[in-house]
Design brief:
The protein has 199 residues and is α+β, with helices and mostly antiparallel strands. It is built from five helices and six strands, in the order αααααββββββ. The chain has helices at residues 15-21, 23-43, 48-65, 73-85, 94-103, and strands at residues 104-110, 115-121, 128-134, 137-140, 181-187, 192-198. The strands form two sheets. The protein has a four-stranded antiparallel β-sheet. The longest helix is centred in the N-terminal third of the chain and has 21 residues, at 23-43. It is elongated. The chain starts with 14 loop residues before the first helix and ends with a strand. 14% of the residues are buried.
């Protein structure tokens, strides 16, 4: 049985629904969501005080963990991930941080949607990024190789050469009997002949 009046059952879409179902509408929705995310990121950039406090805690943990045995990049990544959720008590050993501040300086740089922390020292005068702050969270990326904990003089006296030339003769340790004879392969006519050569 066929329906006589099919047009009466069709619903008409409004202009708003047509726009939202179009490609341009989907792009507009995506841009609105992205704009709102950027606005939230701009509002929730961590303050310099929070960045400084969190980075001091992360640097203290890094120095304490690498006190006796230096970890690798996986250890650094695990420690930095845990440091997002925990805070170290750097007041228990104030000498560690005073030694750190003797040779290093932490500077906080604010950007539009995030902030970064960089360590400046004589080894890295331009600075090494050791932390990122965004959406109210400080994410440390510090490694022990970013930190300078002590310095040693290159020259002990004024105008002394860094690499000293020595005129001492090398000590003769004699010959090892097992290394006197050795085998060489000659490229012959059609066979590879092996002969023993003695010096």
């Amino acid at each position: 049985m066929s329906q006589s009046n099919k047009e009466s059952y069709k619903t008409k879409e409004s202009y708003m629904q047509m726009f939202l179902h179009s490609c341009l509408g989907k792009v507009a929705i995506l841009l609105v969501i992205l704009g709102m995310a950027l606005l939230v990121a701009h509002i929730t950039v961590p303050s310099d005080k929070k960045m400084d406090k969190e980075m001091a805690s992360s640097i203290y943990k890094c120095i304490e963990e690498n006190d006796s045995i230096h970890g690798d990049k996986i250890d650094d990544a695990v420690r930095n991930f845990i440091a997002i959720f925990t805070t170290a008590d750097s007041t228990s050993h104030p000498g560690v941080m005073s030694e750190f501040h003797k040779y290093n300086q932490v500077r906080i740089y604010r950007h539009t949607f995030y902030s970064t922390a960089r360590i400046h020292n004589n080894f890295n005068p331009r600075g090494t990024r050791v932390g990122i702050g965004m959406f109210g969270i400080v994410i440390p990326t510090v490694g022990y190789s970013d930190i300078l904990m002590h310095t040693e003089p290159l020259r002990k006296e004024y105008n002394e050469r860094i690499i000293k030339e020595t005129n001492e003769e090398e000590e003769d340790f004699g010959r090892t009997p097992s290394l006197d004879d050795y085998k060489t392969r000659e490229s012959g006519n059609n066979k590879g002949n092996v002969r023993i050569v003695s010096e």
